[in-house]
Automatic annotation (TrEMBL):
Keywords: 4Fe-4S, Iron, Iron-sulfur, Metal-binding, Oxidoreductase. It comes from Candidatus Abyssobacteria bacterium SURF_17. SUPFAM superfamilies: Aldehyde ferredoxin oxidoreductase, C-terminal domains, Aldehyde ferredoxin oxidoreductase, N-terminal domain. This is Aldehyde ferredoxin oxidoreductase N-terminal domain-containing protein. The lineage of its organism: Bacteria, Pseudomonadati, Candidatus Hydrogenedentota, Candidatus Abyssobacteria. Residues 30-231 form the Aldehyde ferredoxin oxidoreductase N-terminal domain. InterPro entries: Ald_Fedxn_OxRdtase_dom2, Ald_Fedxn_OxRdtase_dom3, Ald_Fedxn_OxRdtase_N, Ald_Fedxn_OxRdtase_N_sf, OxRdtase_Ald_Fedxn_C, Tungsten_al_ferr_oxy-like_C, W-dependent_AOR. Belongs to the AOR/FOR family.
Length: 654
């Protein structure tokens, strides 16, 4: 287990600004600069970070949303030069806070048309902060392929013609040979060819922006963004700050499942390997293919995998992934019994920069439409649930060959082209495929979050004990209290015939997620289990010198999420787009049985009326208009978003 960067200089004082002059403002926690790069004009400028925005929106996701509101014009084509790439690193990134490495990329994503925020870890935010920047904003588009190279104060836009057409692994390896080791956000051929569900990779390892962030970069002819930073971040109260940091590391090290988390990463299930000890994708195969584990800066787990196939025709193939679980998922989707071939599928998706989840969903759509004879072989070719079909479809989609040119446009375009009923053949929300099916595990917060998330069928911001099956009801009460929900809200949440009210609970999961993404902390359960709203408030206060208590911190998280919703209300998304997929109300046939959607504790079957009521409860807990599913004038005003109120009044939305 090792980190890709050493931790020297984490608490050093940055004594000069990004242009080499004396700083006029003392920044603690923050680097103090926003870097703007216009690829059309070549203009590069560095603006000071507004501390008023920092107090109000924290950083990371929050300030990204603030910038997006000014920069993304409603109705903007996601692949037009005017659509910005906004990259943010929160105030705790670049410090020793455990798991503080979460970098946020915001843009208008082409698959859903929603203003969205993708997140990725590794070392990009760490280097970005050390180079002197809290946010990077890239606008315009180049006429020829380019990459951005940031080396502390030096910012260059360089020719990438020799890299265009190369996959993520190859391109980044070439860039590292040219510039030495630095951090990267890069795209593969899927992004270059504007596939609507292409994504970018961070340091060849972490994915970011599955709903087409890769295509946004590709439309700008932007192959990669590289950054190396050698400075440091000053904290306001080093003694108080390190007390909080050391306490967190002590708790993590003392955790009874710490060794299992280190050994298995996100495949740790109560101290055992989630996929079993034996079998085609059990611990025996994992140990065989695992070459190394990689950690983000300040991570105590090292939960990312470097996999190497050691035998056969694919012998020597190296794959970087956030979990061996991706290999198991590919194997199950394609009934692939050869671990090397399943690893090859993950390798291809990562190299090309194609979203795993959306590809899996498109694969299922094609198979179901073929099996039911809605699509004919002369339209799509011979397909089956096997490695060959998966391999062939990836190649066709990435390079837009044959039917791949249609599939590359995503769900809605595919349905339109072939006259398919999306309600019958897909499970998506706002054009983004869902991953958590409530018919399989019951309706928990992550399943419900897919309905109300501003970017579409995304689940990560709905974290709770329902992530795992069998959690006792008492755990939900403790968890929502840990996230800073007030006592009266806890009572409302727990007063439910289903054990807990999933709609009301989800509101606080989202605010908790907004705080983590704004501060820059990893949200994975192995990490966030050691945090509470109180701990986060003390970390923010001692790092930045901006005093907050947990109530003020969670209000900032609420403000960030309301702004996120407002950004997409302005794009035309309302309650009508928070509709559950019709497939959820049909029995799921699997393993010779039928499964219906039930509540998390499996007490009874859920109806459409139940889901509508839970949506009402969610909007009520948020203080939003249940008719539109959007923030009210009173809520926006209470959160200090008066500029949004004025804008929406002018647009006739309020």
């Amino acid at each position: 287990m090792h980190s890709m960067l050493d931790m020297r200089g984490l608490l050093c004082l940055r004594r000069t600004d990004a242009d080499g002059g004396a700083m006029t403002t003392n920044y603690f926690g923050y680097a103090g600069k926003i870097l703007f790069i216009n690829l059309s004009t070549g203009e590069i400028r560095k603006d000071p970070l507004d501390l008023a925005d920092a107090r109000k929106f924290l950083g990371g996701l929050g300030i990204n949303n603030r910038l997006a509101y000014d920069l993304i014009k409603p109705g903007l084509d996601p692949l037009s030069p005017g659509n910005p790439v906004i990259i943010g690193a929160g105030p705790l990134i670049g410090t020793m806070v455990p798991g503080a490495s979460r970098t946020i990329a915001t843009s208008k994503f082409p698959l859903s048309g929603a203003v969205s925020a993708g997140s990725g870890s590794m070392t990009f935010g760490f280097n970005m902060k050390r180079a002197g920047y809290d946010h990077i904003v890239i606008t315009g588009a180049s006429e020829k392929p380019v990459y951005v190279y940031i080396d502390d104060d030096s910012v260059q836009v360089l020719d990438a013609s020799g890299l265009w057409g190369r996959d993520n692994y190859d391109a980044v390896d070439q860039l590292w040979k040219r510039h030495g080791r630095c951090s990267s956000i890069s795209i593969g051929q899927a992004g270059e060819n504007l596939v609507k569900f292409s994504l970018a990779l961070v340091d060849k390892m972490a994915t970011i922006g599955r709903a087409g962030f890769g295509a946004v970069m590709g439309a700008k002819k932007l192959k990669a963004v590289l950054v190396r930073g050698n400075g440091g971040i000053k904290v306001a109260d080093p003694k108080g700050f390190m007390h909080e940091v050391n306490t967190l590391f002590h708790r993590a090290k003392s955790y009874k499942l710490h060794s299992a988390a280190v050994a298995y990463g996100i495949l740790n299930a109560g101290g055992s390997f989630m996929l079993g000890d034996e079998g085609p994708y059990g611990l025996n195969i994992y140990n065989k293919v695992k070459k190394d584990r990689i950690a983000c800066p300040s991570c105590f787990i090292a939960d990312k995998d470097v996999l190497v196939v050691s035998e056969g025709e694919l012998g020597g193939m190296k794959t970087y992934t956030h979990s061996f679980g991706m290999v198991a998922t590919a194997a199950m989707k394609g009934t692939i019994t050869d671990y090397a071939k399943a690893t090859r599928i993950v390798n291809m998706l990562n190299r090309y920069g194609l979203g795993h989840q959306e590809f899996d969903s498109m694969f299922e759509l094609i198979l179901e439409a073929s099996e039911t004879k809605v699509l004919r072989e002369d339209q799509i070719g011979a397909v089956g649930r096997n490695y060959e079909t998966m391999h062939d479809l990836i190649e066709k989609i990435v390079f837009r060959r044959g039917i791949g040119d249609v599939l590359a446009e995503g769900w809605m375009a595919t349905a339109s082209e072939f006259g398919l009923d999306t309600n019958r053949f897909s499970s998506h929300v706002k054009g983004l495929g869902t991953q958590f099916d409530p018919r399989e595990r019951g309706l928990g917060t992550m399943e419900f979050e897919q309905l109300v998330n501003p970017r579409g069928g995304h689940h990560q911001s709905g974290g709770s004990p329902s992530y795992n099956q069998g959690a006792p009801v008492e755990m939900f009460e403790r968890h929502v209290d840990r996230m800073g929900a007030p006592p009266d809200a806890v009572r409302r949440i727990m007063d439910s015939p289903f054990g807990f009210n999933v709609g009301r609970f989800t509101r606080y999961s989202e605010d908790w997620f907004a705080v983590f993404d704004s501060l820059g902390i990893c949200i994975r359960s192995q990490n966030n289990r050691f945090y509470s709203a109180d701990v986060c408030a003390r970390l923010f206060s001692t790092a930045t010198g901006i005093p907050v208590d947990k109530e003020a911190l969670m209000e900032a998280g609420e403000r960030v999420w309301n702004l996120y919703r407002a950004l997409n209300w302005r794009e035309g998304f309302t309650r009508k787009d928070d509709t559950p997929p019709p497939k959820w109300f049909e029995p799921l046939k699997a393993a010779g049985s039928e499964f219906e959607m039930k509540d998390y504790f499996q007490t009874r079957k859920l109806t459409r009326e139940d889901l509508e009521q839970l949506l009402n409860d969610y909007y009520d807990e948020r203080g939003w208009d249940p008719a539109t599913g959007c923030p009210t004038r009173e809520k926006l005003t209470a959160l200090g978003l008066d500029n949004i109120v004025k804008d929406f009044e002018a647009r006739g939305l309020l």
